[in-house]
Amino acid sequence: ASIVSARYGKDNVRVYKVERDEKLGTQTVTEMTVCVLLEGAIQTSYTKADNSVVVATDSMKNTVYIKAKENPVTPPELFASILGTHFVETYPHITTANIKVVTHRWTRMTIDGKPHPHSFYRDGNETRNVEAVVRKGQGIDIRSGIVGLLVLKSTGSQFHGFVRDEYTTLPEVWDRILSTDVDCGWQWKTFSGLTAVRSAIPKFDQAWNGARSITMKTFAEENSPSVQNTMYKMCNSILEAVPEVETVDYALPNKHYFEIDLSWHKGTKNTGKDAEVYAPQSGPNGLIEVKVARS
Ligand SMILES: O=c1[nH]c(=O)c2nn[nH]c2[nH]1
Q: Which of 5, 26, 115, 210 has its CA 20 to 30 A from that of 247?
């Protein structure tokens, strides 16, 4: 038998960091969950119980905290690149570091119309995600993304003209609820190394803000003929807005809300244009995926 692939590390490393600005008297917080997975000449730890090649996952966890203390933790693309570069540069037998950074939302409270200096709230399960692959001597590949942005529109969505055959019961609709849980990502052109990532720092927040705004604006303003067409338009807009991005991808569940026929009760009209009360569905759900590159 031979090993086809192997990587190991520490997952679910939770990190909180506060930045205190003494002059302004304000504090800023970042909370993230980090995963480190290393690859390299580690096969003998599996095949021969040779632990001399094993950087303990506990040491990786320690390293995450030290690097978070020594370096900025934002933008997450920078921190992931710093962390991954550390591992491939410190251990000669480690050739690839896979770093995932999931940043959670702590949105600053506005109290009496003013941003509060040190109070925040979790406005949603949405996270800003970064996956960086650092390959020794071969640069840094970064995919940034938005996960868990739950959206709904009460109209402005249609679905008709689809295949009708002996398996089809779905009625055509010109006015439906559309709800999805956005999982979106954008792949940056390969960075030659940490210096190139540092030069791109301003672009990471710009891209995240742009992708988030484009997603919500397109979702809201499009009279969507399908999830497929609307997400394709989102991809095109993001590619147009961020020249350094090579591809954009979306995976969108279609979270259905079913009409409820209430006519059994005194002829109550609650379908079609009279529909007001719906049954939100946990499942099954549609799942529509796409990845779009520059043509
Ligand atoms: O937007 C949609 N795309 C689909 O492919 C689909 N299938 N059922 N409902 C659907 N809605």
A: 5
